[in-house]
Amino acid sequence: MLSYGLCARESRLAPSPAPSVQALDFMRYRLAPLAVLLLLAGCAAGPGPPPAPAAATAGEVEVAASAGAWRGWPAELSRFATPIHVRVVNRGVAPVRLSHDDFALIAGGRRIPAVLPYEVRGVVYAPPPGALPSAGFSLDDPLATRDWVLHGTPAAAEADPARVGEQFALPSPDVLDHALAEGVVQPGDRASGFVYFEPLGAPAGPTELSVRLVDARSGQIIGRAVIPLTLP
What we know:
3 helices, six-stranded antiparallel beta sheet, 18% helix
């Protein structure tokens, strides 16, 4: 009886046999597709969803705005400009004028006027998506339609020694196409797009978007919408 107990105890404490080579190969075969799917999911993950906009109302016109909503090319646009996405909804009875002169940022005690889309200037080195190369405006003439890829001699090395390769001039097609169009928002209509400002960096103090709303017929000011912004 004693010897039986010892044998039973030894059988419980004995280590499990190592898996065979065939079992390891089978496990690798089953786990490999899962690893590939996880890798692809991580690579496909782009920037998160745009932040929820803040809104303000003047008269019967609602203006919503958000910073950090840019998803166009170049992704590094904030180096050259501050893009603010704006939506104007006219629930009143008067047509509302849309002009870049009516938009301004209030940041660090400064009033910063909007710039026109073709005034967004700069050179980027990251290649654009395949659908973009030969569209857009030249740097010299906003009405021209020449290739916006800068050919020829690259910029001097002392300008940015870490940057080499083909250069691409702003404004890009995305900067132009996604801009808020100037015009008139009729009663019951809405308009949306990006308004551009000079690059801000990290302004001290709160940042607000100030929008002057003007009756397109009479030229009288309907009101002013002031929207707080959280810069990315």
